[in-house]
Amino acid sequence: MKLLYCRECKDLLKILRSKESCDCGKCEAWFTGKKFFVRGPGVVLCPSNASIKKALDEFDKTGSSRAIETLILPAKAIGVVHLSSKKRE
Ligand SMILES: [Zn+2]
Predict the structure, then answer these.
(1) Ligand 1 centre and the CA of 62: distance in Å?
(2) How far is it, in rounded angstroms, from Cα 43 to Cα 24?
């Protein structure tokens, strides 16, 4: 799972196969099955599954909250395509 975080409006949304826009409309992202496409001032976030599992295990045992690790994928990460500006196709 990958998430789009808009640097402008701070919206966070899951990247789906359908093209989705952030609240301010400056970013959009979609997934083709092989690549994640992002347009606008957003970054792609990748929550760590191992970190989520560890936090859930801790939560189930103690009920306490725990931070999870999330990577910010570089613009040139494999499988991620950043398009420079928002244009409708
Ligand atoms: Zn936005």
Answers:
(1) 36
(2) 15
Phi-psi region of 75 (alpha: psi -120 to 50; beta: other; left: phi over 0): alpha
Intervals of the chain under pLDDT 50: 86, 88-89
Q: How far apart are the CA of 53 and the centre of ligand 1, in A? A: 29
> E strands along 1-89, which residues?
3-6, 12-14, 20-21, 28-31, 36-39, 42-47, 70-73, 80-83
How much of the chain exceeds pLDDT 90, in percent?
A: 87
How many Å lie between the centroid of ligand 1 and the Cα of residue 76? 21
pTM (predicted TM-score): 0.84
